[in-house]
Design brief:
Blueprint lengths: L6 E4 L5 H12 L3 E6 L2 H13 L5 E4 L5 H14 L5 E4 L16 H26 L5 E6 L6 H4 L12 H23 L4 E6 L13 H6 L5 H4 L1 H8 L9 E3 L2 E2 L3
Parallel strand pairs: 1-2, 1-4, 2-3, 4-5, 5-6, 6-7
Antiparallel strand pairs: 7-8
């Protein structure tokens, strides 16, 4: 099988950071598959991209629905035969500003379903496709919110942030990143696994508006995804088990 073409799957790719990742990687010559929970919204996003001369493919993919993930993996297998890059971008927060002593279990479970269990399910089901590539990358969009080091650092921007479900799910995803990277390395497989913190970016994440996020100090979406784009396009596939952002290393 000829795997020279870079085929990239981006979950949560129809809006916000995911859409910008799809756009920029497509512009850099990758064949990008937009994973969209809602197929119609995905089609709308694809149409808008095409109107600006950007071509991307589409697959229905709800990371919290195992059947949807399995079907997406089957579709990608039949249409492309392999994957080069998997970007686990889909995420959400359901417990923002809820006190740890009062946070609802339903919110905690929702945080973990999309930010952790969904990420693991997608990764496991796409691994057979990644293994068919001569070299592959898994990039997990994490958050400094999941850093215990920064949560205890009074000088950190996230010191006063409270979203224990979301933060715990991201911390769990970070550990999955480390352990999967070690497994791939130990098995001598050419698959790297890294976590990236985009920081606070001006999107609709968490129910905010891009305008409100900017007033609170959020960076542009293109700035937030810069490290992801760098990793996804780097010909050097050596970095693995790292947690970084646009500025450099992020403390676990």
């Amino acid at each position: 099988m000829n795997t020279n073409e870079t085929i990239t799957l981006v979950t949560g790719g129809n809006r916000g950071m995911g859409l910008e990742i799809v756009k920029e990687l497509s512009q850099k010559g990758q064949r990008v598959i937009m994973g969209s929970r809602n197929l119609e919204k995905g089609k709308t996003a694809i149409t808008r991209l095409s109107q600006t001369g950007i071509k991307a493919d589409l697959v229905q993919l709800n990371v919290t629905d195992p059947a949807s993930v399995s079907k997406a993996a089957q579709t990608i297998t039949e249409k492309y035969g392999y994957l080069t890059v998997l970007i686990n971008n889909a995420g959400a927060v359901f417990d923002f500003q809820q006190k740890p002593s009062e946070v609802k279990l339903t919110n905690l479970r929702a945080d973990f379903e999309i930010n952790y269990f969904g990420l693991v399910d997608v990764t496991q089901k796409m691994l057979p496709l990644l293994k068919k590539s001569s070299k592959a990358k898994i990039i997990n969009i994490s958050s400094v919110m999941g850093s215990k080091t920064e949560a205890l650092n009074p000088k950190a921007n996230v010191y006063h942030a409270v979203a224990v479900g979301y933060q715990s799910a991201k911390a769990a995803a970070n550990m999955y990143t480390v352990q999967l990277a070690k497994e791939m390395s130990g098995a001598k497989l050419p698959i790297t696994v890294n976590a990236v913190d985009p920081g606070m970016v001006a999107t609709e994440f968490g129910g905010a508006t891009p305008e409100l996020a900017k007033k609170l100090g959020a960076k542009s979406v293109s700035f937030g995804i810069a490290r992801t784009i760098e990793l996804a396009t780097s010909p050097n596939n050596q970095d693995t088990a790292t947690f970084t952002n646009t500025y450099g290393t992020v403390a676990w």
